[in-house]
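Researcher: Structure for this, please.
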Amino acid sequence: MTHKKVACYFIRMAVSGIFLLMLSLNASAKNILLTNDDGLTSNIVALYSALKESGHDVIVSVPCQGQSGMGAAILFLKPIKPLPEACLGRAALSGDPGVGPVTKKDENFSYTDFYYVNGTPVMATSYGLDVLAPKRWGGAPDLVLSGPNEGRNTGPMINASGTVSNVQFAAARGIPAIALSAGMNTAGKEESDGNIVNNPLSVVVAELSNTLVSHLEGSSDGDALLPESLALNVNFPDDVSHDTAWQLTRIGTYNEYTLAFSEDLSQDSFARSYGLAEQPYPGFTIAYNSTAPTQEQIDNEAYVAQNAISVSVMQVSFGTEKAEHDWLRSRLSELLE
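Model: Predicted structure, token format:
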């Protein structure tokens, strides 16, 4: 074989290899809806970028403003009118439609795939599922990712979490869904003009989240990334790096925070530290839990996530298994004839 033929042979082999690699990448690429309860944040921009670099097709649908603690709230049959003020991060400006594509311009980043809703987190997720996904993909996404949130969502308090409620909303439709929450130290700095300066920690959390998706892809064998009856709740510690360990956890009963109603927020140290309680008004308070977990709680995500990346399995909605159903039938046998 001449040198020319040898060269042509290796060129053909290289081209074939590249073609096969492209087919492999396309086969594993997913249609992903990315949402949160914080709005246009450093965390969501970083995760979008990481997913796109991995070849996924991504749509972002977020609330116009931060909506922490709104849980599964929905504003039923309330028309979403033009914005009375700019969205967080100047995703859209006063007078823009209440729902639509992000209008923010940045010469270093394209917001073409980004959308906002002047409503609750679940409303933003629903906009993505009911309007954006069918237009883009002709149906539901392969995966819904909610977050990464600015602050962990662990333990019993996740009932109030918009991040987790987004996942429950999607998973109840049979769509694989994962809640992602990081430390509050991942928040981007807001400038005087309302723009958000990206946080380097957001990139770390985004790359780790992308790693989780990749592992689920690799073990799915072409099936859905998660069973219909399950969703995941993932939490990252404040001190997070690419070397941080992953740990299987359960939601459990341990609380990272304590929640309570206060008759006078001006006496609450947490509220005062944020300048939120200058007058003696009542309100709901939150504080860090200083109580150590019991031996039965040491595998709870609220404890583990302080030092490792916790991965907990959630059941979808409030349904239970047959064993619990049979237990209730036996307890109320005379009533449930």
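Researcher: Any notable elements?
Model: The radius of gyration is 23 Å. DSSP finds eight helices and 13 strands in the chain.
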